[in-house]
Write a structure and sequence with these properties.
By secondary structure, the protein is α/β, with parallel strands linked by helices. 39% of the residues lie in helices and 11% in strands. It contains twelve helices and ten strands. The strands form three sheets. It has a six-stranded mixed β-sheet, sandwiched between helices. It starts with a helix and ends with a helix.
Length: 377
């Protein structure tokens, strides 16, 4: 959700599994009843009109089958709606009338934990992958989907895997090569090389006609918790903005590389891709005026500022003041707002019910100066 918001989208969710997990790994998985998953999906599709869908952890075959059946149901209903051409984004929508669908076949986590039953691979191949615009397996997941005992160890292996998986019926296959780069880093450490060569993380996309290579510097960090989910969510958001799969993968790759570079450990294990939320510190990009621009960190304090105006990315950390909390902390309204802004707040709502109008105007005027000083910096 944080990635979707940071890239200018608004996400809605349907929970297919509940996990007990933290930065050290996944401790337990609970699968809710299929009827409840169907109700969640109906709530989303019966209200908002999704422009793209991303699937993540689908813990068993029944869940995969439920999701595939419901997506086909919604596509048929949209196609039958009077005056509707299914209301979908043409660049990423499937030939079956579905909204652009990104299938992240989450079966093995970045940390190596099994997250799904063995039957999930068969269900994905038969039910969901044929509906997908893009699938995004890592090396281990690609191997499972192919039903192969042969590990994927080279770029050539990745190309062969992408071509084989494309035959399952999806529009495009993205094989993520981060684990290859990780293995290169470990090899360098074992060799104790004093002049370690630069390592690139290369992903390969195959659309049935061409192979596309997406190379970026390998970020040396342990904070890789959820990187696959981050990438798939960014791809889905870019598709919702009207980008083609080739363009969407590039935007998402740029985004992921940037947030990995800004990652910070928060616990005992692998941290997220950016301190506290995926949007902190990002320049604002209007997804309507500039739909193909990746969301990147400001290159310098002198980076040009965007015009004022409501932008979904501006709402990534919304803070509401509380006079009672301020009083208990011994802080004025101005001090509280300054602390919130220093902590990454992008929107501050002044909510003071216990002071008269004149005092509120004076304090609010002082708070406005915080914004003026930020605009000058």
């Amino acid at each position: 959700m944080q990635t979707i918001m940071a890239n200018g989208g608004f996400g809605m969710s349907a929970l297919s599994a509940l996990t007990a997990q933290n930065s050290t790994g996944v401790q337990a998985v609970h699968i809710p009843p299929q009827s409840f998953l169907e109700q969640q999906l109906d709530s989303v599709f019966g209200d908002l009109q999704p422009l793209a869908v991303k699937t993540g952890m689908l813990p068993d075959a029944a869940t995969v089958q439920t999701v595939a059946r419901k997506l086909q149901q919604y596509a048929a209903a949209a196609a039958a709606r009077p005056g509707s051409s299914s209301g979908l984004v043409p660049s990423g929508s499937s030939s079956r009338g579905l909204v652009p669908l990104v299938v992240d076949p989450v079966m093995i986590s970045t940390s190596g934990h099994a997250l799904a039953e063995g039957s999930v691979g068969d269900a994905l191949r038969q039910c969901l992958i044929p509906l997908a615009t893009v699938i995004t397996p890592n090396l281990a997941e690609a191997q499972v989907l192919l039903g192969s005992d042969q590990p994927i160890e080279t770029l050539g292996d990745m190309k062969a895997a992408a071509a084989a998986l494309h035959k399952l019926g999806c529009q495009a296959v993205l094989i993520k090569g981060g684990h290859l780069a990780q293995q290169q880093q470990l090899l360098q450490q074992q060799q104790q090389s004093s002049a370690a060569a630069a390592i690139e993380a290369t992903d390969i996309l195959y659309d049935g006609q061409r192979f596309y290579y997406y190379a970026a510097p390998y970020i040396r960090t342990d904070n890789t918790h959820g990187t696959g989910c981050t990438l798939a969510a960014a791809i889905a958001t870019a598709l919702a903005h009207g980008q083609s799969p080739v363009e969407a993968v590039q935007s998402a790759k740029d985004y992921l590389t940037t947030v990995l570079a800004g990652s910070k450990g928060l616990g005992l294990g692998a941290g997220p891709q950016h301190p506290f939320h995926h949007g902190a510190g990002f320049s604002r990009v209007d997804p309507i005026l500039n739909p193909k621009a990746p969301v990147l960190l400001n290159p310098s304090p002198k980076a040009p500022k965007t015009p004022d105006g409501l932008n979904p990315v501006d709402l990534r950390m919304y803070v509401v003041t509380d006079s009672g909390c301020n009083k208990r902390a011994g802080k004025t309204l101005l001090q509280a707002v300054q602390g919130a802004v220093a902590g990454g707040a992008t929107v501050v709502q002044l909510r003071e019910k216990d002071i008269d109008g004149g005092d509120f105007v004076r304090e609010a005027t002082a708070v406005i100066q915080v914004r003026a000083l930020l605009n000058q910096s």
